[in-house]
Design a protein that fits this description.
The protein is α+β, with helices and mostly antiparallel strands and 187 residues long. The chain has helices spanning 8-24, 37-40, 45-62, 127-135, 173-185, and strands spanning 67-69, 77-79, 82-90, 97-102, 109-116, 119-126, 140-141, 152-157, 170-172. 33% of the residues lie in helices and 26% in strands. The chain is elongated. The relative contact order is 0.13.
Length: 187
Amino acid sequence: MTARIQDPEVMRLVEIANRLEHRYIDDVNIWDGSPFQWLKGGLASRRKGVAFEELVSEWCAARGLHVAKSPDSDADRIIAGLRAEIKGSTLWKGSAYTFQQIRDQNYNIVVCLGISPFDAHCWVIPKDDIMALRDEGLISPQHGGSRGSDTLWINGVNPMNPPDWIRPYGGSLSAGFANLEILTRKV
């Protein structure tokens, strides 16, 4: 591509851009060849959210749980009788997941699915625990100002060293699913 550039000033700018690129393209290379690369790429936020909902739905169904769409917008799915809110995250800068837009709505559990280039993680957290963790300051408001308290996020979950408070809810896909099975038995 640079062979087509004739202007020496443009070439100088290309050299500078090449030196700066790594500052702005943090982890693109770690996703090369990943079967999940399409999730990291150019999907709009809402479309990515729908993709995570479908991933969780089909994964749970493949594991033998009955999954249905929620009849209202307070939950994403009904999984084995539990109203489930599904939150997904690919790795953010610093190799951590951030699960966003968690609201106090009519659901029983939040299923947090984290996707790394060649691994995946899952935590299944009861809504009552989400609210208690918020009250303890372990889960924080996503936004500042007057609208800050209605939307929470679970920020900075490094899958290799997750915070102690989230460990009981899963970690690996198997651990997350085991917790989901325990919760569905209580229904």
